[in-house]
Design brief:
Largest sheet: none
CATH class: Mainly Alpha
Number of strands: 0
Order of helices and strands: HHHHHH
Radius of gyration: 15 Å
Number of helices: 6
CATH superfamily: Nucleotidyltransferases  domain 2
Length: about 140
């Protein structure tokens, strides 16, 4: 059964995390790990909103690659422009409990916020399309 309210709630939560990283950009001074965590969370919640809207059970995982694969395996093609977001998985797990090493590349925070905003718009459009297809 498709749960549009649950999908909409998850997308709203993704937007809250996006707003958090936008505030981090505006005010500065935040660690890469904290910024990356909220970026990962926004991405995860947006993908899970899409999964729920497809009538699928959301897996309990932070692995963005496996979420994207589940979506694609069930007939929804995610644009390649969002592929780079799957690299954020380590911010939900690994970098949540240990700092980034000095040789880790730093995040392009502004570009990342823009890409996540684009993902959220994409998911919103998919949810709107799905709801207009419903009788």
């Amino acid at each position: 059964m498709i749960e549009p309210d649950h999908a909409a709630t998850m997308l709203q939560m993704a937007e809250m995390d996006l707003n958090t990283i936008r505030l981090m950009l505006e005010h500065g001074g935040f660690d890469e790990e904290a910024f990356g965590f909220h970026a990962q969370q926004a991405t995860e919640k947006a993908l899970k909103a899409l999964i729920v809207s497809m009538g699928l059970i959301c897996p309990r995982t932070h692995d963005l690659t496996s979420l994207a694969e589940l979506i694609q395996k069930n007939g929804c093609d995610i644009p390649e422009s969002f592929d780079e977001l799957t690299d954020l998985t380590s911010f939900a797990v690994e970098f949540r409990y240990q700092p980034l090493s000095v040789d880790e590349p730093s995040l392009d925070r502004a570009a990342l916020a823009d890409r996540i905003a684009q993902l959220i718009v994409y998911v919103k459009q998919a949810l709107t399309s799905q709801s207009s297809d419903q009788p």
